[in-house]
């Protein structure tokens, strides 16, 4: 990767050849005015190339637009003074992200020992001396191979059994679920052991991600994802539970998620030349509400006190009975849930991290519409759901949006001019702000003293970007001329309030849960961040706003879509399936609102970063500077 | 019941008030000329009433037609000399039938302990302190009640679980299959223990019989039956297997039997005010071919050497998956088969007799299209299928027919005039001859010396009833003027040949099977006759023609539809289900045609009663008279 050295700051970063110089600057922690998100239209981001090869269109007045400039070798770039107004910009710490958990642990290794196996047998063909029934012939040989004395049989196997046996002269591959007793799921003519696949799926409230897994070697052949089509019927789980109460509501939600799963399965199979009948296992993890919709289970009592799921552990279910494509033998498994708002995605996530098998006290955080937290180690696991709300996913934020093209994903504010530097996903004209942009923006506004600890704008700053709008004070992030939506993109005090409540809910959640098990935050040895957030999150910024606890940065890890990883492990390993059961059993769920101290913790957390600054020593130090 | 005394023979029999005097005469072993089958048209059966009350129309020339005369008190009836030509008619032994097996054993008692049970539980309703999932709440209580630690769950139970639990404040009845591990099949609100039913069904090649069973007390609430609608596609199993090879043939045969089962279930439920959802169990027994059709299994290899069934033991199958009416929880079980032509009807039958639990060496005989025989006791069981063909059900007999209205069911031939006395089912003009009529006729022709031991007509008898027809020598049983079909009903030498071959196949079957296990016929301590035949069969006649072995008459029993009885026992008792498995395992199947001595035995049996008369000592004695 080319190295880019910025002058006059003399900071060097490495970036891939397909990233722009403005992104390199953002990465280096340097400010360049940029208000079009990298779309190349505002022209404010002029830089001069002082050495090395670049690709980009020179400006007539000299220099290049940093947002359309690519390095083609190591380069030296000067940021002109009109942009880099003040050395204070350099005070901003370079973006620090959590280490990749799986890489730190050399990946989530599981021994390849799937619960659903293919067994190849060459049977003795029948004769007048030995004319036992087809099934008995197969059963006898299978039981011998398995070292078992009882076999359950999926009766639908019987329909083509005689033909499958005779097709290759009684050489046959059985698909068997290794349980007690083992279950014969299906039968294939000849030796088909080399063709055996599974789909691992994370069914999220917003996104459904699927991986096609080769069960013969554990490889991930491909991955795909799509929005959960239930979104049309409600953005969050609560509104979908409401929709489910309407006539056919539940049926629609059920069918939508099944259709989407079917679509993803077909897409992956087609791309990787796998027959749908070669899929033996849909290994799925999802939150409790998604699990209910998937199985067509009444979700109503999940949201009515005392918040009771229909079930939290689920049997293997024939995929056909759910209308999913596959063979007659194909089974679906769902990661076990813990409570109404701590679901199988969390169980799978905890299994993916391995934290329940190790000694260090670990805090597992999944920041999503509903923040879930787990704390524990090999000896205990405690979990809770925080009603954080969707603010960190852009929900309830005036110009908040999901992380799609045109979303502002990174922001820096010049501390002197208060001009922003913004980057959008896809380098398009900005449409709104997504989660990581929101955190950047909030942290910048706070750390530059534009808003105070309670999230209110300083009324004495003279900048056209800070103004009283119709809904109170606000910061203009993008003028309408430069936005893709024909209006100013602003960030309001009401938005900030929402964010403070959301981060307050998370932080007081950590505190309450830890206190419930007799511990406190300083005892946490590792923090693992799950969800899409983890890899993009600027740790410093997240700590500055009090969303994450102020712990040594090297103890933070991101694990990515741990729900999907857990689902994959469950497809690959009987042991992981069992571990999922064990973890679900082991997890003690705490209802935060039932804790007597929770409300106090919550109220104390409604400050940036917190009422008690001693909880955030590095932020305290920074503020004192 | 009124007593009827016949003069001049001075023989008294009891008959119900709705039976005619001519039937009383047949029962008493007395001959009255009668050629219209009891339809009241030939007018040959004149009798005189000498005492007691009768109902019937007097003939103008005096006396009454015996076939339309009913006793209204004890009566004395004189048979005029022109009918009772010769005292030799009295030589005919009075009809002797086998004792009813179940009555002899005080019924097939099983302890009432069905495999599918209803369990009533009052659960603690959920609260914030105890908000475990609905399923876990139920599961915990159920496992405690069952004394088990693992429960399998029919996932479809989950769909209405929350409502069923809440309908009666968490008082709920579970339907559970008691296996290892137990399986939760269904759930009902409140206490429904008192409403629990099963259907026991014998799926025969010709007839399907069903009983509605109250599982709370073991009572048979009702019984019904219908022709197996597959008959339209082939009278016997072989022709149906052929039909199954046509496009959609198997599907049609499968659907027809399912439709018929559904119809019988609905009919019984309607009549006895039982909801179809209250049926927990279809307990079915049928021969191997019927079992294959019922489950939509390929029957083709049953009839191709080496005669391999797809399966002989069948798992419990959800009734809904077969398209049968019932609840989501309703299961179907099928009695295990032994071989391609010894099916679950025989296994069920053996269980019904209890012969596999007792010491006496027992010969179990089911004479149907395919004769099946089982010999054994508590220590061993051996079985075989005899390809006897359908002659004893009227198949392959020129005027043979099934036992329906108009079928000649009893015959007596006057030894002097050779005039017949016939009775038809329903007292209608005769259409043909059914099984019991065929045996009567054959035995009469033989014992009166009208045919010889090889089944050929004596050529020297002067009677218009014995003649050379287009197909050789024949006996005219009904002249066309008196038949319902407008033609003479005759019994030909070809018919007799078929019958001799059929009874020869049965008898050589007994011999071969017994020899296969180192025994011979004289060692048999009991003979149990299964099927419809048993109760109507005239033992003496069946022995005279060599269909049954010549053993002491008191050792013969008929058990009726033992397949149905076995199916009922399997519904009522877990133990009987297990016994069925044990019996099927225990039964050693012998392929008769593979036995080196079989052909010799068969050829020797192609005589009336047998080439070796010493095997039939009482017949030998009778013939010497």
TrEMBL record, chains A, B:
GO terms for molecular function: iron-sulfur cluster binding. PROSITE patterns: 2FE2S_FER_2. Residues 2-83 form the 2Fe-2S ferredoxin-type domain. InterPro entries: 2Fe-2S_ferredoxin-like_sf (IPR036010), 2Fe-2S_ferredoxin-type (IPR001041), ATPase_NBD (IPR043129), Beta-grasp_dom_sf (IPR012675), Corrinoid_activation_enz (IPR052911), Raco-like_middle (IPR041414), Raco-like_middle_sf (IPR042259), RACo_C (IPR027980). It comes from the Bacteria. PANTHER family: IRON-SULFUR CLUSTER PROTEIN (PTHR42895:SF2), IRON-SULFUR CLUSTER-BINDING PROTEIN-RELATED (PTHR42895). This is Ferredoxin. It comes from Thermodesulfatator indicus (strain DSM 15286 / JCM 11887 / CIR29812).
């Amino acid at each position: 990767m080319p190295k880019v050295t910025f002058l006059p700051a003399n900071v060097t970063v490495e970036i891939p050849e397909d990233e722009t110089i403005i992104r390199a600057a953002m990465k280096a922690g340097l400010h360049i005015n940029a208000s079009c998100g990298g779309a190349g239209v505002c022209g404010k981001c002029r830089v001069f190339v002082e050495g090395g090869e670049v690709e980009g269109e020179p400006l007539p007045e000299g220099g290049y637009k940093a947002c359309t400039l690519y390095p083609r070798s190591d380069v030296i770039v000067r940021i002109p003074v009109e942009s880099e107004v003040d050395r204070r910009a350099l005070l901003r710490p370079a973006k620090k992200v959590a280490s990749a958990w799986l890489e730190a642990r050399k990946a989530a290794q599981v021994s390849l020992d799937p619960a659903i196996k293919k067994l190849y047998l060459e049977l003795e063909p029948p004769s007048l001396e030995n004319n036992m029934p087809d099934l008995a012939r197969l059963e006898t040989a299978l039981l011998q191979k398995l070292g078992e004395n009882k076999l359950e049989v999926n009766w639908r196997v019987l329909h083509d059994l005689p033909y499958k046996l005779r097709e290759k002269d009684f050489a046959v591959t059985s698909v068997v679920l290794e349980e007690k007793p083992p279950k014969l799921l299906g039968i294939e003519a000849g030796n088909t052991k080399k063709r055996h696949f599974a789909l691992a799926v994370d069914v999220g409230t917003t996104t459904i991600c699927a991986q096609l897994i080769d069960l013969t070697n554990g490889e991930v052949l491909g991955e795909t994802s799509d929005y959960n089509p239930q979104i049309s019927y409600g953005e969050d789980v609560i509104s979908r539970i409401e929709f489910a109460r309407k006539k056919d509501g539940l049926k629609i939600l059920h069918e939508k998620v099944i259709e989407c799963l079917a679509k993803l399965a077909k897409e992956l199979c087609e791309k990787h030349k796998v027959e749908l009948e070669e899929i033996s296992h849909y290994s799925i993890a999802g939150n409790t509400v998604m699990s209910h919709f998937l199985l067509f289970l009444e979700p109503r009592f999940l949201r009515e006190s005392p918040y009771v799921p229909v079930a939290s552990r689920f049997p293997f279910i024939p995929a056909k009975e759910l209308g999913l494509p596959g063979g007659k033998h194909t089974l679906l498994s769902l990661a076990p849930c813990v409570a109404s708002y701590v679901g199988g995605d969390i169980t799978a996530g905890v299994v993916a991290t391995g934290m329940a098998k190790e000694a260090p006290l670990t805090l597992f955080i999944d920041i999503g519409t509903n923040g879930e937290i787990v704390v524990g180690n090999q000896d205990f696991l405690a979990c809770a759901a925080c009603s954080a709300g969707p603010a960190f996913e852009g929900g309830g934020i005036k110009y908040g949006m999901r992380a799609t093209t045109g979303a502002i994903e990174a922001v820096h504010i010049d501390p002197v001019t208060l001009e922003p530097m913004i980057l959008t996903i896809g380098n398009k004209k900005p449409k709104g702000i997504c989660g990581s942009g929101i955190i950047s923006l909030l942290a910048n506004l706070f750390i530059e003293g534009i808003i105070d600890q309670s999230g209110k704008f300083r009324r004495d700053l003279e900048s056209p970007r800070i103004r009283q709008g119709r809904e109170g004070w606000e910061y203009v992030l993008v003028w309408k001329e430069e936005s893709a939506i024909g209006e100013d993109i602003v960030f309001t005090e009401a938005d900030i309030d929402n964010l403070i409540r959301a981060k307050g809910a998370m932080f007081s959640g950590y505190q309450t849960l830890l206190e419930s098990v007799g511990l406190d935050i300083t005892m946490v040895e590792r923090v693992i961040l799950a969800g899409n957030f983890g890899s993009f999150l600027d740790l410093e910024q997240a700590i500055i706003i009090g969303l994450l606890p102020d712990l040594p940065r090297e103890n933070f890890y991101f694990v990515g879509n741990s729900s999907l990883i857990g689902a994959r492990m469950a497809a690959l390993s009987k042991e992981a399936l069992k571990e999922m059961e064990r973890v679900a059993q082991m997890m003690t769920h705490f209802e935060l609102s039932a804790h007597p101290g929770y409300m106090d913790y919550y109220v104390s957390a409604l400050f940036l970063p917190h009422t008690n600054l001693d909880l955030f020593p590095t932020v305290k130090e920074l503020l004192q500077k």
